Each structure stands twice: as C-alpha cells, then as structure tokens.
Amino acid sequence: MRPSVRGVLFDSDDRLIIFKRIVPERDVYYTVPGGHVEPSDASLEATLHREMMEELGAVVGQVVPLVRLTYPWRGRTKTQHIYGCRLVSMDPALRHGPEFDDPSRGVYEVVRLEPRPEEITSRHIVPEALGSYLAEHIRSLPALVTRGGPPSPTGDR
C-alpha cells in the first residue's frame, strides 16, 4: 500500500485549516489535506506540496515532520506521514484533481479552527489516529511549525 502524507496547516492567525467532508451516503467527517505518494513525487515533502496545491490551491512555507501514523485499513496497514506547515497563499480557483472533477466524491468544505482541543474533539476527525494526535498536541502545534521542531519524538502511533 502506498504511503500518504497529510498537512496540519496553519494560517497567519494560527487557525488550523481542515476539510469538512460531505460525501453522499456517509456521515459528515473532517480531515486535513493530503494524499498518496505518486511515483512522480521526488519525496514525501514534494507530495505534501503537490497535495496542498491540488486540494486547496495553497502554497505552504516551512514544512515540519510531526509524526508517522500507522493503523489498520481495509485489511492492510496504512502509513501516513504527518507534517506541520504554514500557509503562504491560497487560491481556491487553483484546486484541481479527481476530488473536484467527480461530484460523487462529495464536498470538500474548507474550515478554519482555533487551536483548542475542544475544536478537535467536537468533530469526527478521520483518520481517528490523527484526531487523537491533534487533540493531544493542538495547543503547541502553531508555535512548533513556526519554530520547526516536533512536540514529541516522531514515531508510530
């Protein structure tokens, strides 16, 4: 299974930028932008930059590795590399890819949250391992992304 990356993205006001996902015949959930590593991606960080442009029309600045999450998914083990980053610019008109070409994929509504645990725990964050990580570390993450070091050792969760 190809690994994937996700970006814990903060704007200049330290708000977390996430997606509210509204998918036909599914309960509403929230997630952060990201996706699978493609063969043409030079690195995990390059994947992150590509995914931010595709899903948000966003350019991000400093990228900080936060944690690697592994969890069971569809009978296999999924690995997601989570990075913290800062928003430099965002133009929704630049969003592109299958998420936006196929209406059956649902809606990707951009939401900005204050960096407080209750903002995380009051929502169904997918994957759940990411929601747990964010709830535990959300208060320290905005400063961490600015400073450039993880709140805890990178490892499996």
UniProtKB/TrEMBL annotation:
PROSITE patterns: NUDIX
Domain of life: Bacteria
Lineage, uppermost ranks: Bacteria, Bacillati, Actinomycetota, Actinomycetes, Streptosporangiales
Species of the source: Nonomuraea soli
Protein name as catalogued: 8-oxo-dGTP pyrophosphatase MutT (NUDIX family)
Boundaries of every Nudix hydrolase domain copy: 1-134
InterPro entries: NUDIX_hydrolase-like_dom_sf (IPR015797), NUDIX_hydrolase_dom (IPR000086)
